[in-house]
Design brief:
The structure is a homotrimer. By secondary structure, chain A is mainly α. Chain A has helices spanning 6-11, 24-27, 31-63, 69-96, 114-120, 127-135, 140-161, 168-190, 195-199, 207-225, 246-265, 274-306, 311-326, 334-357, 366-385, 389-417, 424-429, 431-436. Chain A starts with 5 loop residues before the first helix and ends in a 15-residue tail after the last helix. The relative contact order of chain A is 0.14.
Amino acid sequence: MSFSNKIAIGAGVAAPILVLAADPAAAAVSAETRYVLNTFSFLVHGFLVMWMAAGFAMLESGLVRTKNTATICLKNIALYSVAGLLYYAIGYSLMYVDVDQVIGSFSLLYNPSDAELALLNAEEATDELVAPVVENGYAVMSDWFFQMVFVATAASIVSGTLAERIKVWPFLIFVVVLTAVIYPIQGAWTWGGGWLSQLGFSDFAGSTIVHSVGGWAALTGAIILGARRGKYGPGGRVNPMPGANLPLATLGTFILWFGWFGFNGGSQLALGSAADATAMAIVYVNTNLGAAAGVVAAMALSQAIYKKIDLTMTLNGAIAGLVSITAGPDLQNHLLAIVIGGVGGCLVVVAVPLLDKLKIDDVVGAIPAHLVAGIWGTLAVAIFGGGDLVAQITGIVAIGAFVSLASAVLWLALKATMGIRVSAEHEDLGLDMAELGMEAYPEFGRGSRAI
Amino acid sequence: MSFSNKIAIGAGVAAPILVLAADPAAAAVSAETRYVLNTFSFLVHGFLVMWMAAGFAMLESGLVRTKNTATICLKNIALYSVAGLLYYAIGYSLMYVDVDQVIGSFSLLYNPSDAELALLNAEEATDELVAPVVENGYAVMSDWFFQMVFVATAASIVSGTLAERIKVWPFLIFVVVLTAVIYPIQGAWTWGGGWLSQLGFSDFAGSTIVHSVGGWAALTGAIILGARRGKYGPGGRVNPMPGANLPLATLGTFILWFGWFGFNGGSQLALGSAADATAMAIVYVNTNLGAAAGVVAAMALSQAIYKKIDLTMTLNGAIAGLVSITAGPDLQNHLLAIVIGGVGGCLVVVAVPLLDKLKIDDVVGAIPAHLVAGIWGTLAVAIFGGGDLVAQITGIVAIGAFVSLASAVLWLALKATMGIRVSAEHEDLGLDMAELGMEAYPEFGRGSRAI
Amino acid sequence: MSFSNKIAIGAGVAAPILVLAADPAAAAVSAETRYVLNTFSFLVHGFLVMWMAAGFAMLESGLVRTKNTATICLKNIALYSVAGLLYYAIGYSLMYVDVDQVIGSFSLLYNPSDAELALLNAEEATDELVAPVVENGYAVMSDWFFQMVFVATAASIVSGTLAERIKVWPFLIFVVVLTAVIYPIQGAWTWGGGWLSQLGFSDFAGSTIVHSVGGWAALTGAIILGARRGKYGPGGRVNPMPGANLPLATLGTFILWFGWFGFNGGSQLALGSAADATAMAIVYVNTNLGAAAGVVAAMALSQAIYKKIDLTMTLNGAIAGLVSITAGPDLQNHLLAIVIGGVGGCLVVVAVPLLDKLKIDDVVGAIPAHLVAGIWGTLAVAIFGGGDLVAQITGIVAIGAFVSLASAVLWLALKATMGIRVSAEHEDLGLDMAELGMEAYPEFGRGSRAI
């Protein structure tokens, strides 16, 4: 038993003794309180996940070169906006409303329920008006908000891999389709109650459904788009193109870690009972331990292999630890979270040079951190968490195949029509001057117009 | 109906079935629970709004030139501090305590209620002690905290517009008066229950009462202070003075967006019932959609007009979308939030060059984003939300006239006494070396002492 | 009485009238609701404190020179990770489990309680399963999470002082021992219910137990490690080595301030009653006022002494104000918070040059802000808050002696074995190239490989 006497000192009031009332019903959470708590959990955890959009923006801003920094900032705020609008217009309904095995409803827009509107527009909140609202368990739009920030996360992953050579508008059109159609359809299979959930596929907060989906879309795009000019030299030489601002990349990683408590914690989907609150605490702890293990593993392995600690690898180790634990952060033995996150951190150190060997140019390391670790985390649910290995593999393969295929078709269509890659001149000049006509840091460093 | 089966997979416990107890009272939120939830809502949403102070600091740091960056950092942390101290000393009481149509109480300091102190200092929390506390609906100081971060927001808006040429101490004296007197008096008219609220003026979270107030104070200051040296050349030429660090400006915008869930969501002022939680979820969604629409509208319009996407304009589009939806984020049709935010984003693109034509030098674009969009959002409540147009216009004009007049008197008094503008030599040298004797980035770029 | 009518306008529903039910039990917070609220408070406030790790990373990144920036980023994410792993493995049990006056249990790892696991793994949440869980007052792991982020804070403080010359791995080994053993043992004395708590030593959220502990470890390290090369010249000359990125330092300070609402607010340790919620609101307000007063005091004093406002001093003034109020943020007279924080801000301005006179090289000013202000804040509890002065002094001295001695032994052992300081060549080159083989800002400024 833990013992903490801060309260007696702090509050100046005798700590209330927790007694259960004689009547068990009086000791329980009332239905309306539960509704409020569940709703508030979606909102609080939702704003944390929304904040991850800033994390991706900073991580990517720090890992590109100065001449492409303003563009990556623009793309990140734009993709978050586009994702939110499209998920409102189409995506959410496709994913969650009346899902029939593989797809939900094509209804446009998504709004509060009639019962909610009746309550809000009444003079008085009578029991008759409150009851049907409360019965849903949470406010309808709070769930929308929480799910929306997830689709934005998937879109954010794509942005970093393709940085420094993709055109802005075609990229945003890809985001439109990804968030309106591709992500929601595969999401319906599991979280919408479709065929994968019935098969027993288990992905608590989205190692596969969010992170690998972003990773597959990014990988397909990287292959079709090609590497940055000069990245891969003759004879297998890989030219380093170091990120321009590592403190920003570090900040971005911390933001992601912070936001991940919302990502995983909120995916408990409820807070209104002792069981839910207890489970949520476990999720928080596993999330933190997985990330911490990813950091230490990536540091140690990069020291062992390269005789230096690589900061970028370490940051991606944190992310990989987080992605790895995302499929099963409800594991009740916390030691397993350390194992799972640590393996995730090692996978990054192994996968980054492997991608370079394949000449797949992933500017920020998103494919190792989100796709590879996402697959690992989803398998780990079967290995350590009692999940069904066949169901897990089926989910990984089915979602991977669908997203890769759909993304490839879309990338190729964009390439054939408006083109997806800037000209060689524009790439050398940098996207900031070419596409935006401005510089991210006009007074710093070389070649800036201010000097 | 949305369907989500994450919980059954996640929690490992059968999802609790939400049944309403036979006795409706047992199903409702108890008075003490409601008190706790309302209080916690003020604290959580309050810390989000406090975080907006960092957002303004980063936005403005990114949009000024390097030689004035340390000064803008200093001004932002100082103004937040000054605002908090003065709102504690005088402001809150003037705005909320015993408001008599136009002004509240002149009592100094603001402290917990006697009932609260009696409860906290008791040996045991008896029903007799709890009841009078709970009756207030929320902890007295939680409301103070939430209102305090709003006044700080108004002060933050002024700082950006006047950057790069105003002296530090006179600026802070302006903040003293703004947060102790000017803001509270006009706030009393509506949120304190004064004459504007009785007229039916409606401003949910402060498009006018916070954002336009900051905007009017900034506009008055910009006119009296004059433009930066060299900003406007002969023949109507406008010399660009690009911001030195656009990733920081992007970060600042993301912080503001994140914090705005507190700004608008917390302005529901209660969380302790199904109706409040439902309304709060709607507010979150509208806030996000308004901002997203502002981004997309500003991007599209700047592309159409200038054939380039302007990142700064896009960031201000997000802010304008947020400001626009702030007067009516409780609209029950989310499509309207998209319309309102989108118009806000367009207004920025139009208003920025217009100010330049008038030779009003607004360094960060705060006047378009906060004042113009604030007026629009307040009108939109009447246009789309059923508010009274006459009341809305009355509120906009009355608050605008009062704040502009009071600010002008104050700026002119400061100008006549201690002076508000640094010397031409100091302006050319930069405020950092002139007023602080230090550089923000001593090792970067041109002219730094480190090179 | 404060009056706010936002709700009537906003929600569109008549504001629920708060009536206490005839039956007092029905008006109170149920035991299960209290459990949920207490747990959620630990999680929300815990994530805020976790975010302080990013604050330290940014503060320190901004205050070191560019050539050591990537290393300080690495150390900050690594120390947070190491602290979490070790506090899980050993530290928490030593501090909180079965504490016998001076030390807790040596049991390894820390996991959910049997009662919690029984509830989570049941088919249905029966009263018999819920009751023993709820009796604990909060989810076991939520408390772990909240306490873990505190130990990480103590470790973060050490990192900044020793920047720019310490080797990475020995530093991390120090963090291992600090977070696994040193911090937990002294923490057990008070928060674990040991001898200091029985003596009446009072430290609400850790002015001494967290901040001074970090400060003593840093001070001991600074003395043993020695100053940076060239910092102190002949004749008492102090060579300024200005921080490379002051906006980042400002951001870091804002993050710390933001996170401190979790640090102090969460240390109420409960949210599930009117008394707790009321007390928590008071804590938030004092925290903010203490920081604000620290800022204004540091600004004014640095203006008076140096005729310039020093930004770095001002930022440390905020931190000192926060540290000062941390021992007693539950004071019921808010004016005292202003006094306590203001004195803290002044102490920074005095202590920084004093350390330089003693040739103790504290790169970021952590010793004045955390150690000196921590001692002051702990004394202030006796001076203003009714605490026992002898108990306070006993706590300060006992903890200071223990931590200094243990740290000194550890630093000397590390120095004798693997060495703690980089070579003079590596120090001149910068730790980033020497230890990491990379640069934080490869395209900016002088001497970078990109130019």
